[in-house]
Here is the input.
Amino acid sequence: MGLITSTYRLMYLTAYQLTLETKIQWIATAKMELVASSDEILALGNDLDPDNPAIKQLEARRDKLAILEKKLDLQMQEYQNRLKMVNAELDSCRGAVDSSIQRSFSYQF
Here is the structure.
């Protein structure tokens, strides 16, 4: 690849890397909020009679939160895998840029 093409690819990959990192941070924040909500639900249930219908509702909500947390885990894993691939491609692209610069400026007179 030429220097301009490699530089453009480097900028694109860097932007995509930042996008993936931002999405991973959002998911981590959402997971923390889910855990806090789940803990609150468990705390509410401790004071009630186990046969109370409200306990059944709280347990159902807790189960839904657990399913959502698993979905977030899968999404985060996908983004982390993509990030690894982007980082590998970035390393390759940086090498191409360095190589293009060396070829462009290593004239022999």
In short: The first helix runs from residue 3 to 46. The chain has a mean pLDDT of 88. Helices lie at 3-46, 53-104.
